[in-house]
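User: I'm putting together a teaching handout on how sequence relates to shape, and I'd like one worked example. Could you take Assimilatory nitrite reductase large subunit from Achromobacter aloeverae, show the sequence you're using, and then write out its predicted structure as tokens right after it?

Assistant: Happy to. First the sequence, then the structure tokens directly below it.
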Amino acid sequence: MDKPKLVLVGNGMAGARALEELLKIAPDLYEITVFGAEPHPNYNRIMLSPVLTGEQTVDDIVLHDVGWYAAHGIRLLLNRTVTRIDRARRLVHADDGTVAHYDRLLLATGSTPFILPVPGHGLDGVIGFRDIQDVQRMIAAAAQGGHAVVIGGGLLGLEAASGLAARGMRVSVAHLGATLLDRQLDDAAANLLRATLEARGLRFLMARQTDAILDDGHGRVRAVRFQDGAEIPADLVVMAVGIRPNVALARSCGLHVDRGIVVSDTLQTYDPCIYAVGECVSHRGVAYGLVAPLYEQARVAANHLARVGVGRYPGSVLSTKLKITGIDVFSAGDFIGGADTETITLTDPLAGIYKKLVLKADRLVGACLYGDTADGAWYLRLIREGRDVAALRDRLMCGEDAANDAGAASDAGHEPGHAHAARQAA
């Protein structure tokens, strides 16, 4: 009997992880076809920053090479974009004329970088920071030297800026907000981060809204103009102002889309034959852009594709790390806090260390760490588990080992250094 056919549209981290999980559970269940829009096999997109800095190569970040697909009998179709889904006939059509039939379809179309729709956004020298091609273009631009303007002071923006600076460009970061990483850090941690990056030569233009990107008269960027009328010269402009779920394909075939492709707790769309995972998905009104939630989704989707049918995806507690060599940043959960929360803070300005823990009803609900992130994974685990930490609260700041050792905790207040811990109502 012929095997049922599974088609995966999107060969990124979420889709490939779903296949990996599926093959663990039911390796022989499906005849599998994979469409990838890029010419590369699955690679670790979150490691593009070390490729930009030159610390790693493209080959270093490949997660599944072409041989992996062949070894598992998977038909891999690279550099082909699926343009249409015929749900009535269960067919997908690609831009090169390829047609594939499916019994189950898994959409993992990811996201696209948001390009500000300002005048000049289409000029040569204006790029996003999303894939290998973007990184290759940045490396080529950096080889020519000059001045780069990165628009956006979030995670991707700072990683792009750091990478370009490491390759010798003069770099300015224009950010709409008043502080860097304003979705991931509180003001204290953000100010420490800014000081560290300025010491590395980066320049920051805060509370600046881009008005236009200016032409050199030959179709190439020459400057960026802000709404206050100020201009800054630019040989390269990197847009890092966010991503948008790539839902055009799903919308065109009539699937329910609301910000992302709407899925249930089983990662199933409104069409029972079609599942979706990753950045293209909207689950309980939330679209995730970090890798950990995408992998959690992949595991649940694989469970149901394998016909086990017991997994549920309830949503994720988010955590963030910045991938810039020598800078340790971590945040998770509700690290800002509110009227019904309590904060424990530790600051050591000389050592460049700042830690903030947020508690609510004797449970850890958020953490923000700068300079020392060794216990980030433990704090994230406590947040996810919702454990009562009343018995640990006086030792929480000392870390997991000390929290489990009352003797070590009693000495924690006398360790060398100038750190000061303070507990206060938020």
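A couple of points you could highlight for students: Residues 5-112+243-305 form a domain with the FAD/NAD(P)-binding domain fold (CATH 3.50.50.60). The first strand starts at residue 5 and ends at 9.
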